[in-house]
Design goal:
The chain is an alpha/beta fold. It is 48% helix and 15% strand.
């Protein structure tokens, strides 16, 4: 909404400025016509006609200037017409209109009857796996994306998505935020802060914010996030428990996204049957029902996992699923299949 308001203000200022320049050119034209003795053209109607035809470089030639001063003025008006008319016309009118036509077939609103749903701001592999879990558990959701081509692709794959700016109040209202169960902010830390601030001003719903730099965790809390999830911080806790983990029967370190679905990091132990297998051959989802959405390799976390990625004994899997599914995966990461 703020972005659209700024665009409207810019358009109004540009149009007002252009009209002021055109009026100034008209008055100068009348003075030049009087100076040249062409009094028949020294009126507002002919002045407007000559200025517009000159600015747009049409130049019909039915009204001409004859004095050196008039010719210099005519050239000046022609040159200024290129940025004045075409700059404003194309940048602020034609291009936005064409973009609107292109995006007209992309939904920008959730269905009015959408209730008790999850609003997901931003798409990536982690969110795709979460959506699979939501579908399996019949949990309603709506995903907001700013890339129109990505929205089209998501819709083709039957993923409920709308096009809009994730941190704008208007977009969140179009996602029925007042009737939502909770919201997930899944952008950069800075953008997530804007999302949280905007959402908190509209609704008291639960807000989960993903954070890249854990030092920003407190700022997202200050902004109004109910909880902040940091994969790097979760990894640190797992390293601290790594030696004792094989002897712990319950699933530890899991962060619940919503009722029944959690995300957890599971280190791969040397005796795990997964060691040496590719992600495709490991068939983790088929065996456990859990989804692997990320992997720690060489001290860095990646959400881009190829099917031929080999699982090593120093890998750490970032997985999402129910407690039962994650418990089954935990057994696979240790020593028994």
């Amino acid at each position: 909404m703020r972005k659209r308001h700024l665009w409207h203000m810019t358009l109004l200022r540009s149009v007002a400025g252009a009209l002021a320049i055109i009026l100034f050119y008209m008055l100068l034209f009348i003075r030049i016509m009087l100076h040249e003795g062409q009094t028949a053209y020294a009126n507002l109607y002919d002045a407007f006609y000559w200025v517009i035809s000159t600015l747009t470089t049409v130049g019909y030639g039915d009204i001409t200037v004859i004095s050196p001063l008039g010719k210099i003025y005519s050239v000046f008006v022609q040159l200024s017409g290129i940025p004045l008319v075409f700059g404003i016309l194309f940048t602020l009118v034609i291009i936005p209109w064409m973009e609107k036509m292109i995006h007209s077939n992309i939904p920008t609103r959730a269905q009015k009857n959408l209730r008790d749903h999850i609003i997901i701001c931003g798409y990536n592999r982690l969110i795709e796996t979460l959506i699979e879990e939501l579908n399996e558990n019949n949990v309603p959701y709506i995903l907001i994306e700013e890339d129109p081509e990505l929205v089209k692709d998501l819709l083709k794959r039957n993923i409920q998505a709308i096009f809009g700016t994730v941190y704008e109040e208007e977009t969140l209202k179009y996602a029925n935020i007042k009737d939502a169960h909770f919201l997930i902010a899944n952008r950069s830390d800075e953008m997530n802060a804007n999302i949280v601030l905007t959402a908190r001003n509209i609704s008291d719903l639960n807000i989960i914010a993903m954070v890249e730099d854990r030092s920003n965790k407190k700022y997202l809390k200050y902004a109004g996030a109910t909880s902040v999830v940091s994969p790097k911080e979760m990894f640190g806790r797992f390293i601290g428990r790594k030696a004792a983990d094989p002897f712990v029967n319950r699933l530890t370190g899991a962060t619940e996204f919503f009722e029944g679905v959690s995300i957890v990091e599971l280190p791969i132990y040397p005796k795990s049957p997964l060691v040496g297998k590719t992600m495709k051959n490991a068939a983790i989802r088929e065996k456990t029902g859990a989804n692997v959405v990320g992997m720690w390799k060489g001290g860095s976390l990646t959400f881009i996992i190829r099917s031929d990625e080999v699982i090593k004994d120093n890998s750490v899997l970032l997985a999402i699923g129910s407690s039962e599914q994650l418990s089954r995966l935990k057994k696979l990461t240790q020593h028994m299949e």
